Amino acid sequence: MKFNHIEYKQRNISIWNEVAPRYHKRWASINQGPFQSTSKLVQLLNVNKGDKVLDLACGTGVVTKKIRSEIGSLGYVIGGDSSVTAIKTAKKWIGIKPNLDFVNIDAENFYFSEKFDIITCQYALFFFPNAQRVLKNIKKNLKKKGKLGITVHGAANKVPFFSSIFDEVTKFIPDYVPPGSPDLDRFGTKSSLKDEVRKAGFDKISVKNFVFKFNPGTFDDYWKNYLRYVATPLKEKIDALGRSQKLKLKNSVRENVIPYTLKNQTIEFPWEVLILTANS
Ligand SMILES: C[S@@+](CC[C@H](N)C(=O)[O-])C[C@H]1O[C@@H](n2cnc3c(N)ncnc32)[C@H](O)[C@@H]1O
After folding, report:
1. In the chain, where the domains are located
2. Which residues form the pocket of ligand 1, taking CB atoms under 6 Å from any ligand atom?
3. Can you tell me the distance from the alpha carbon of 269 to that of 84, in angstroms, rounded to the nearest whole number?
4. Taking the domain 5-155+184-214+271-279, which CATH number applies?
5. pLDDT tens digit string along 40-58?
6. Is the C-alpha dihedral spanning 261, 186, 117, 46 positive or negative?
7. Is the whole-model pTM more than 0.70?
8. Which atom in ligand 1 lies closest to the alpha carbon of residue 17?
9. At residue 81, does pLDDT exceed 80?
């Protein structure tokens, strides 16, 4: 089946509309594991009082909130996302503030009449089927010498939290994600991320890597939470496997996490994160 760009984006919107509240509770509102990146991103961008900032694919507002605390009353920050539920969750979490707004936008197609000093995009570049189009669009919406800040997860083998499950699930369910979908770790190395951003015409590109630790509890906690968190279309495919195949799948995931299992039987995953900064 041929990859359909529009269907892929619509599927992402409906998945995020379902999982945003769970994502917020489990990840974004907690400054732990990979989300230690939020402070690092804001620090590396050197956000100043008075800056006008767009937080693209803001999700439930974790970066937006942090930036708002740095820009003072003369600056403003806009969080933009294609999921209305993510925006609703962000608004409820941060509240109504004078220098803050949220808009429902598609990263490939947005336009603002005023240009920004900074545009951030944390944990989303890999979801855009046409990342070049998004980056060029970001460039158009930045002031001259405006700053870009992008955070992505490292390559699959550097983020075993994802790969320990995903590698096995895709063996048992080859169409787990729509055929032809872009790889979610395609910007997970310094060179691949840098090349993509350079191709869009950015300058002074720097990529730093961080390795955070994340402990999801015991294997049973890890597995149970995956099933609880995952969006319905994926959960349905796992459930359709039937009892014995599902048990085989669970056991092969269990094998994968052995190297990360501590003496107290909890898991400690390393989690690589790349943070890119660049000028327009
Ligand atoms: C993993 S979340 C990251 C959210 C937030 N930046 C954070 O760090 O928590 C990915 C977000 O990208 C958004 N997204 C995916 N495709 C998008 C698109 N084409 N335009 C705008 N937002 C998009 C999703 O709705 C989701 O909120």
Report:
1. 5-155+184-214+271-279
2. 9, 12, 16, 28, 57-59, 62-63, 81-83, 86, 106-108, 122-124, 127-128
3. 32
4. 3.40.50.150
5. 999 999 999 999 999 999 9
6. positive
7. yes
8. 25
9. yes
